[in-house]
Amino acid sequence: MSRQKQKGTRLETAVVDYMAWALGDHGIHRETLHGSMDVGDIGGVYLQGEPVTIEVKNTTRLDLAQHYREAEVEAGNKDSVMPILVQKRFGTGISTLDGVGRQWAIMTLETLCRLLNHGLPIGDEEDAE
What we know:
Layout: H1 3-23, E1 29-30, E2 42-43, E3 46-47, E4 50-51, E5 53-57, H2 64-78, E6 83-87, H3 97-101, E7 104-106, H4 109-116
């Protein structure tokens, strides 16, 4: 396994452990690879019964646009309206729960509003353009 793959696996495992601890849900797990139909890196996360797609990146170079697009594609593969990117935060370790909890969680404003609206659709459909 390449060094970069090992770094990614370590962060994915740390994110699973953190989320299982924080949410008291040990059904959260690392997803297996599905080739071009990947569904994100972390599975077993739901909001109001709907799947949440979590893509995890441990890269030196921050490429939010590319990585978030990947999360959106994988959310589509999963039929999820909640794509979230977890990006390793430079200089913040992942050997403690506190360190893992301080990694970046990136989402669009729309996704944030859906989360704050308990996973329900947002706004008035007639006003959306």
